[in-house]
Amino acid sequence: MKDSQPLSRDSLRFYEKRGLLQARRSANGYRDYPEEAVQWLGYVRTAQQLGFTLAEIAADLPLLTQGEDAGPTLRATLKRKLADIDARITALQGLRAGLAARLAETPDTGTSCPLRQLP
């Protein structure tokens, strides 16, 4: 995976427990990951950086095996996530506006606390 730190053994086992990665066991009990695991893990890490939860990633992993047929479904998934992020931004902007208003009402000195006057 380019431009990323290598995954630790614990990270690999965590992803395996979550069903995002499968390893074969060798005769001595060691885990043997298939070659395509690097691609899968790259997808998982990129999806996490884009705000997808591990549950969302696990639900969408079958898309990777569909090849070009996954395009419309993948676009719909990305659009849904973008709408979720936009909704969170709107909520955070409202939260910020409320906090800024309380800050503006708070004197630099004295004991008045606008948090006591919550609506």
What does this structure look like?
The protein is mainly alpha-helical. It has one domain: Orthogonal Bundle (Multidrug-efflux Transporter Regulator, Chain: A, Domain 2), CATH 1.10.1660.10. 54% of the residues lie in helices and 3% in strands. A two-stranded antiparallel sheet has the order 1-2. β1 and β2 form a beta hairpin. The longest helix has 35 residues, at 71-105. It is elongated and about 70 Å long. The model has no long low-confidence stretch (mean pLDDT 82).
Quickly describe the structure.
Residues 1-63 form the HTH merR-type domain. This protein is mainly alpha-helical and 119 residues long.
List the helices and strands and how they pair.
Blueprint: H1 9-17, E1 24-25, E2 31-32, H2 37-49, H3 54-60, H4 71-105
Number of strands: 2
Strand content: under 5%
The assigned structural class equals: mainly alpha
Mean pLDDT: 82
* CATH fold description: Multidrug-efflux Transporter Regulator, Chain: A, Domain 2
The CATH architecture category equals Orthogonal Bundle
Protein name: MerR family transcriptional regulator
Domain HTH merR-type: 1-63
Keywords: DNA-binding, Transcription, Transcription regulation
What are the main properties of this structure?
119 residues; mainly alpha; elongated
